[in-house]
Amino acid sequence: MLVPIEWLKDYIDLDVSTEEFCDRMIMSGSNLETCEHFCEEMENVVVGRIDKIEKHPDADKLVVCKVDVGQDEDIQIVTGAPNVFEGAYVPVALHNSRIPGPLHGQPKQEGGVKIKKGKLRGVESYGMLCSAGELGFEDKVVPVAHKDGIWILEDEYETGKDFAEALELKQAVVDFEITPNRPDCLAMVGMAREASATFEKPFKYPDTEIANENGKGESKDYVSVEIKNPESCRRYVARIVTDVKVEQSPWWLQKRLMYAGMRPINNIVDITNFVMLEYGQPIHAFDINQVKGGKIIVENAAQGEKFTTLDNTERVLSDDMLLIKDAERGIAIAGVMGGLNSEIEEDTTTIIIESANFNGDSVRSTSKKLGLRTEASARFEKGIDPNLCEAAADRVCRLIELVGAGKVCKGSVDNYPSEAKAKTIDIRVDRINHVMGVELGREYMEKVLRSLEIKVEGSGNIMTVTPPTVRQDLLEEEDYIEEVARIYGYDRLPVTLPKGNNEAGMPEERALRDLTRESLCGMGLNEIQTYSFVSPKGVDNIGIAEDSWERAFVKILNPLGEENSVMRTVLTPNMLEVLGRNYSRNIEKAGAFEIGNTFIKNMMDEDELPDEQYSLCIGMYGKGEDFYSLKGILEELLRVLGIKDVRFTPESEYGTYHPGRCARISVKSKMKLADGAEPLYDELGIMGEIHPDVAERYGMSGVRIYCCELMFDAVKRHSDRTVVYVPLPKYPSTSRDIALLVDEDMEVGKIEDVIKEYAGNILESVKLFDVYRGKQVEEGKKSVAFALTYRDKDKTLTDEEVAKVHGKVLEALKEKLNAVLREM
């Protein structure tokens, strides 16, 4: 937001230097980007009057001017400008002068451009007639009337007078960065309100009182307003001005717009732009003769409707774009740009002044789809107070009256379906002091808040506050604390340490992931990271069933291609791609792991966010690797993570893995069960050898690949890394080895569960040390051998005590599992 200091002084009596103004505004919370001093590099440039023009003797495109610059005699200046005429008042750079530049067709020079007398095609020239651009104004702000050629002044001035002084050009302009939560500061009035509070100076609103509403009839006699979409248009105010005279604006108005970064066009357009910059409320003017039926209708456009905007571009609209229409057609795209079919022309005599409030989201969407962003749309996007509409419309009419551009009709047509109201809350004096670390009185706080036009009521420690409706950012107590703090001055706040014990620590889930990485890297695996955006064909390649939850994809709205069109539900396809890529490059042995997010679509409510959770995938292949290599890695990892009572159960129906070499990984549930009830197990994941068909799809035909995938949320729930001190045993242990004949499909985990259940507390450990299939074991059977260690922490066990417990274990194994001692 460009803020000319001289313009700001219309609303507040500033008596500080530009430097102090900038410093204090920064300390009160305004984000200042730059401060530019205009025309500081202009020296010896004066007002001149062209008294006589003659043709150049040797150049058809040059003329010789006799110019009155306040000296005893006119000076001679040669120029090629096409717009000069006798009697014109112009800026003249005399001999040995300096102008900001740049010269036409040349780059800008630091320190400006030095002008000296010289000869042009043999004729002496004792200076230069200047354009607005050569005096430092950017092309985009040069008035339309002076865009090409010399700057011709509209008024008469004393010749020979310093040009910058005569036109009051030496001004400071401050550029503030306005954050999205402060749209009220995209206006001179908003910045003046901030300066008023910062410098404790009274704030004066612009004059909106119309002296003579002497237009023909009343506004309601000319136009009616109908809002068909009140959600997108909260208010629409229309006023009528008759006897309009479209001409150049007075210099003071042009100057304000130029320093604020806008090009002057004509008096009507300039006044609407001026009020937009002043109030932050965009204004538009229609030629009423082009508004069919005297009707203003606010409704959505038809799908595919074509509309030509003021920039003479035909645009195709969609049915979610808001359009201003008359009785027959569209005349403006709401909040973005007016239509060519209703623009103000030189012969326009009666106009409609539109001051409306359009929904920011609607304007942003329309602007983005059309690729058309304007000063108006930028303001509507951030949100504007509907209560500004009437004051802004009145201000436009007052300025039209002031510059003699027309006659204002009585009243307005104001369609305001639902009035905007501010949120009133209670805030605490002691809370403000606590957060700021100071001791301020309630009286001072009230003074600060009222300087920002915040209404304050209540007594004691509680202040009941109501903000002006332009302050849409003031919603909670913390917002008001910030207001008091910034006006008090951030630089004045004492440095205080926070009170209380602030314990910082790594979240448990993050700690588990880091421990997993450390452990797996220590076991010789390499960590990989792959994309979360994948192809839906990935689950086809690994043989996932059609009705599996692993096909509940979250689709990408704007994918780069099918290969990145959905978010992954499992990590295994990515792991196999990495292993396949390594194998294709003659890497004979590889082991890798990935910890990453997976995303499962909410099938109950598709509008809800997907289920996002971490998973761990391990993959390996090569000489020496087999099912038990991977199982050993998992057992060690789960031990490190503090997960006990893990079991591996055979799985033959999972399409990704070899049906005879796959196992579900589960852990005993923490749910409390009735006495004697079978324990429940919660699933952690799955592991096994990849199915040969799946391996072939990834270019690894004939290669045995071993993978697993664990759900990290389940790992977290069952992880208990609490270290309990156990003293060294005082009493000796006793060991017993048993070799059992069991059915071939008997799981070792079930045998261990029975042993632990019937051995009781004196069983210190049970370990499998042998599995045998051979001539001495009948077909369909296998021999499994365990080492059992018994120990009592309170005494030395006798052989009789151990034998009794050991006997119970053998009886239970035979009864429950038909497992009998093998005869040696």
Automatic annotation (TrEMBL):
Its main location: cytoplasm. Residues 420-495 form the B5 domain. Binds 2 magnesium ions per tetramer. Residues 39-164 form the TRNA-binding domain. SUPFAM superfamilies: Anticodon-binding domain of PheRS (SSF54991), Class II aaRS and biotin synthetases (SSF55681), Nucleic acid-binding proteins (SSF50249), PheT/TilS domain (SSF56037), Putative DNA-binding domain (SSF46955). Mg(2+) binds at D473, D479, E482, E483. Keywords: Aminoacyl-tRNA synthetase, ATP-binding, Cytoplasm, Ligase, Magnesium, Metal-binding, Nucleotide-binding, Protein biosynthesis, RNA-binding, tRNA-binding. GO terms for biological process: phenylalanyl-tRNA aminoacylation. GO terms for molecular function: ATP binding; catalytic activity, acting on a protein; magnesium ion binding; phenylalanine-tRNA ligase activity; transferase activity; tRNA binding. Pfam families: B3_4, B5, FDX-ACB, tRNA_bind, tRNA_synthFbeta. Gene3D superfamilies: 3.30.56.10, Bira Bifunctional Protein, Domain 2, Ferrodoxin-fold anticodon-binding domain, Nucleic acid-binding proteins, Phenylalanyl-trna Synthetase, Chain B, domain 3. SMART domains: B3_4 (SM00873), B5 (SM00874), FDX-ACB (SM00896). The keyword Nucleotide-binding applies. Its EC number is 6.1.1.20. PROSITE patterns: B5, FDX_ACB, TRBD. One of its GO terms (cellular component) is phenylalanine-tRNA ligase complex. Residues 729-822 form the FDX-ACB domain. It catalyses: tRNA(Phe) + L-phenylalanine + ATP = L-phenylalanyl-tRNA(Phe) + AMP + diphosphate + H(+). HAMAP family: Phe_tRNA_synth_beta1 (MF_00283). Tetramer of two alpha and two beta subunits. Belongs to the phenylalanyl-tRNA synthetase beta subunit family. Type 1 subfamily. NCBIfam families: pheT_bact, YtpR. This is Phenylalanine--tRNA ligase beta subunit.
